[in-house]
Amino acid sequence: MSAGTVYGVGLGPGDPELLSVKADRLVRNARHIAFFRKAGRPGQARTLADPLMPEDAIELAMEYPVTTEIPLTDPRYNEILSAFYTDCTARIRALTDAGEDVIVLCEGDPFFYGSFMHLYERLRADVPVEVVPAITGMSGAWTATGAPITWGDDILTVLMGTLDETTLTSQMAATDALVVMKIGRNIDKVKRALHAAGKYDKAWLVEFATMPKQTVQRLSEAEGKVTPYFSIIVVHGQGRRP
Amino acid sequence: MSAGTVYGVGLGPGDPELLSVKADRLVRNARHIAFFRKAGRPGQARTLADPLMPEDAIELAMEYPVTTEIPLTDPRYNEILSAFYTDCTARIRALTDAGEDVIVLCEGDPFFYGSFMHLYERLRADVPVEVVPAITGMSGAWTATGAPITWGDDILTVLMGTLDETTLTSQMAATDALVVMKIGRNIDKVKRALHAAGKYDKAWLVEFATMPKQTVQRLSEAEGKVTPYFSIIVVHGQGRRP
User: Fold this and answer.
1) Interface membership of A112 toward B (CB under 8 Å)
2) Is it the case that residue A1 has pLDDT exceeding 90?
3) Which residue of A6, A129, A214, B119 lies most exposed, with the fewest beta carbons within 10 A?
């Protein structure tokens, strides 16, 4: 086992005050801070953590070799990403072998559709890893709508916009409360599925939840708008309430 | 509108370090602190917040008139609970009308199957209410299992153990990743549904997630154990991973 520990630190939905006390403490006291980002961008996680990071922290930027340039279905996608995560793991491992702790900044909750999981699976046999859960982006989104997401026995289903239209439609039809993430270029397909499932008129679109540029609107009133990849669609449950 | 504000403050899954920085600050500076609890018990939320609460904070305990003594299907259940929430609302409203802010402590995330929502709906027209999202109990539970809950395009479904067995089974069969909450006396029904959906052997039982008495075990190895109402069953998704 490495002498150093890796901390997968969830940063939550975007508001720096919504970091956990533990995440806040770990980032403020960090020596080595790693984070994913798209090449050439400052990076969402890095930007969020900026006000907390010690001036002398050593940064380890892990820049995705591809994001949406190659379709997920292309076999090269997995190959390229796998090599990337293996390389990131080696860079982190070099630090922990030297006895250094490494904080890995994670948007949202690390174990909920996060990139950190790919490092975690590669590190866990050889390096002590501690995961700090966080407020999910979807909690930020439903709170922003000003209405509870689930009541009583409501069923909540979380879907990725990258799923095929048939699956989206049947899942949407079979649930009470709904969250759709990874929307971006899938928005038209997601809208068709919502229509087919009878939930389009009840859907809300939340962009940049809990951040200064947050927007909340009915999806039906957002026609024609470009939606960023990290926007979230929310349909509220209407279950039992005394 | 009342002059005072109500803050519905999510406390997260149980570890005091997993409160958000904002929740921590609000509780530490509170003058009036309200919380739900079962009569005669200290109350989970109150206990969690105890180390943070100012010595001179004024407490407003809201004690459920019933919890599991009357079945949910009994019409009296809704009547009694409705009267209770109306009474709680009046007590809080008396404070905010006098210009006082009131912190309402909420286990988990306030808008995710929480009791606070019943106050929120009754207060929001007349009192400024701010909701502070939090780490959900389920995030605490899946983090405790040491394995990510969702990968790639995995579908996540959240079910209450109080649902009927047919619904539980069909929903469990149609999802990749699964969370079941409100288990308690529903445990045998939930287990039958997991068996029927082919997910029993992959299910984990987490009790008291993130708390000192946390336990994590395969559900199949927890036979015969009494499970507290706030235990959570987790089945991990196995989706795309480079």
Assistant:
1) yes
2) no
3) A214
